[in-house]
Amino acid sequence: MVPKAELHVHLEGTAPPELIARIAERNGVTIPGGMLGDDGRFHYHDFLHFLRTYDLAASVIRTAEDYRDITYEYLSETALGGGIYVEFTASPDHAALVGLSDDEHWQGIAAGIDDAHRDHGIDARIVVSAVRNFGAEQAIRVARHAAERPHPYIVGFGLAGDESVPPAEFAQAFAIAADAGLGCSVHAGEWQGPESIRAALRLPVTRLDHGVRAVEDPTLVHELAERGITLNVCPTSNVVLGVYPSYDQHPLPHLRAAGVRITLGTDDPPYFGATLEGEYDICAEHFGWDEHELRAVTAAAIDAGFCEEPLRSSLRTRLNQV
Fold this sequence. Notes:
Layout: E1 4-10, H1 17-27, H2 47-58, H3 64-80, E2 83-90, H4 92-97, H5 102-120, E3 123-131, H6 136-148, E4 154-160, H7 171-179, E5 183-188, H8 194-200, E6 207-210, H9 218-227, E7 230-233, H10 235-240, H11 252-257, E8 261-264, H12 269-272, H13 276-287, H14 291-304, H15 309-321
Parallel strand pairs: 1-2, 2-3, 3-4, 4-5, 5-6, 6-7, 7-8
């Protein structure tokens, strides 16, 4: 089995409906109306509706124990499919909306990381994410807190949410994070075109989450390759949400052939029916990538990860030994 690593998965978005239901019962809250369809799966009809459904599910997550369980269950499942490393995108804004402090938030996630490492040998770290929809001032607060109160598992700062909000509005937040030594990444080039990627590249980033629509601008593709920018690509998410009509029309092979560094991620796995193992299988089935090429994807994720160097070295050793 090829060892796997991912840098693009939203922590709250890893919790399937069954886990959300258990958490809601434990917390004595009612599952929000409209969150689930008649089939018991998360219900949404377009990207903005998906964001609202995501927020409804996140509103049920109330305690450090909840975050521990979500983290642990996702890492455990991923390890069974060959996963050795995950960088979670975690949103302090969602935790704050239900009254959870940053310390309790990080404590819960860290406990899940530690327990999964003990039980399954998988490692994980955290990229703190600001949400575009909540505004630039809130993003500055999130970045400043991460910068001024470092945590050993918090290794990066990112920006998610509605891409129609320009990245330039968050320049100060990224400056704070970068000055503190945090790795930086931006969601761009999913629902907005190449212009959103060019705007993101004006920030101190080394990675882009999605970034696939760079393919519409050959000059931009060349720039990404020349600068060594890594795209954390989620093929299943892109197809399910309709960014591309099928895997066979997905630009991932073209981007990689052009020299762009890519990794594979699940984005929000239960919303799209994705797993990390499944993303690797898709690349083998639809793009014809062999074991050597899939190992190179894992190596790219290890190289682009924001984790500390001793862990990176350990992950490289594990990849090479298997």
